[in-house]
């Protein structure tokens, strides 16, 4: 699914999923087998392969929701 990464006014990383009309803060980031894994405030985990460092924001990328 396509997601948009950006920073909110307090500098926190935020993920927006347009198809779900969902905007949540990232509460943790880890490295896994499928790339960088973001855990959102609502409990979702999104895997983002090949995420370039340093992170340039805002940007739209392809992510996969983990079960």
Fold and architecture overview:
The protein has 67 residues and is mainly β. It has one domain (2-66): NifT/FixU-like (OB fold (Dihydrolipoamide Acetyltransferase, E2P)). 0% of the residues lie in helices and 58% in strands. The chain is built from no helices and 7 strands. Strands 6-1-2-3-4-5-7 form a 7-stranded antiparallel β-sheet, with no helix packed on it. A hairpin with a 4-residue loop joins strand 4 and strand 5 (45-48). The radius of gyration is 11 Å and the shape is globular.
| Count, helices | 0
Q: Characterize the overall form.
A: globular
Please give the largest β-sheet: 7 strands, antiparallel
CATH topology: OB fold (Dihydrolipoamide Acetyltransferase, E2P)
Taken as a percent bin, the fraction of beta residues is: over 45%
What is the element string, with H for helices and E for strands? EEEEEEE
Could you name the ranges where pLDDT drops below 50 across 5 or more consecutive residues? none
CATH architecture: Beta Barrel
Q: In total, how many domains does the architecture comprise?
A: 1
Which class do the helix and strand fractions yield? mainly beta
Overall number of strands = 7
Radius of gyration: 11 Å
CATH class: Mainly Beta
Mean pLDDT: 94
Distance between the termini: 14 Å
CATH superfamily: NifT/FixU-like
**Strand sequence of the main sheet, in spatial order?**
6-1-2-3-4-5-7
């Amino acid at each position: 699914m396509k997601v948009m990464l950006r920073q909110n006014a307090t500098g926190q990383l935020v993920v927006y999923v347009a198809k779900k009309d969902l905007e949540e803060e990232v509460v943790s980031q880890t490295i896994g087998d499928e790339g960088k894994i973001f855990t959102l405030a609502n409990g979702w985990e999104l895997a983002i392969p090949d995420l370039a460092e340093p992170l340039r924001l805002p940007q739209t990328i392809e992510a996969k929701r983990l079960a």
